[in-house]
Amino acid sequence: MTVRTTLPELEHGRARTTARAWSAAWLLILCWPLWSLLDAEPGIPRVAWAFGGAALLAGCWLMITWRMFSSRGDTPRPWALAGLLGATLALLPVLGRPWAYVCFVLVVSALAASLRPVVFAAAVVVTAVVDVIALWVLGAPFAGIWWVPLVIAVQAAVVQSLKQMGVLVARLEAARAEVAQMAIENERLRFARDLHDILGHTLASIIIKSQLAARLARTDPDRAAREMADVEHATRQALDEVRQAVTGYRTPALSEELDKAARGLRAAGIELEVSPAEGPIPASAEILLAWAVREAVTNVLRHSRAGHCRIDLSVDDTAASLEVRDDGTPPGDGSGAGRAGHGLTGLAERVAEAGGRLETGSLPGRGYRLCVRVPLEES
User: Fold this and answer.
1) Between 296 and which of 100, 190, 194, 324 could a Cys-Cys bridge form, CB atoms 3.0 to 4.6 Å apart?
2) CA separation for the pair 72, 74 (Å, rounded)
3) What sign has the CA pseudo-torsion 377, 275, 198, 326?
């Protein structure tokens, strides 16, 4: 099985490796105290004690920091922190003042990685007090002690800020991943909506023509053959449209949709009357009106059982409008007319994205009305 790693995952992995390498580099602080110890020519027990404690401290330090830079950084290991603090205290009698001057660097960082802010603040105060007492006991002069609490406070503030920054970066990465996933889901929904709009009208027309050809097969074979030829043409056209939708979204033309509507309604025995707009309709608004014509005529063919359909187009300085009326079966009688299916839902989403308005509803007595109004500036 092949596992593919995305570029963000690779970058995140490299950043994690770099952070772990820098955390390991901080252990070089041990070099000065250990070198000072070896320079004093101590006995073997002191050397063993010093290097054993340093090894324990280094292991606990790496456990803490590597865990911090992992996906489970929010679950620190208390035993590792306890081991690091114990090793730090155990090394004070052996390594002396050099160790007391630098040990707080590792201690404060480990505390920040393992404790909550309130507990961390208290632990920093205790660390500063213990370190000052240790330096005083080890004979450090006042000039070598007064600045230690100040440096510890500054380091604690910096480390805590870096920790909070890391939390914010992690949340940002999670939010970016969620936004990317939502974008993918929205793209899938839009593609499904477009595919429904593309095929809905064509398939409805194919069904009508196939039924008509079946009825004419015995009484008028020539006309039945022509209808089946139209079915073949519509099928090929639907296949081309699906291919175009796969390679790139297809924008319908209003004139083409009106021609398709006339052919489909005529085949179903429905009279169509079109009232064109008095002026040119901008291209962006025309696309939305074309989708509206396709959806409205598809519903007329599928549900209305109408005998007459009228399409009115209009345009003014502010908006372009489309109104489709039929005299078919009104909604609510079980025919399914007028009900908001996937096509009307998709059309409503398109119109809303353009800042327009979609109105649908039954007419008094008999018939159904669909009206779309698209503002020209928004579209």
Assistant:
1) 324
2) 5
3) positive
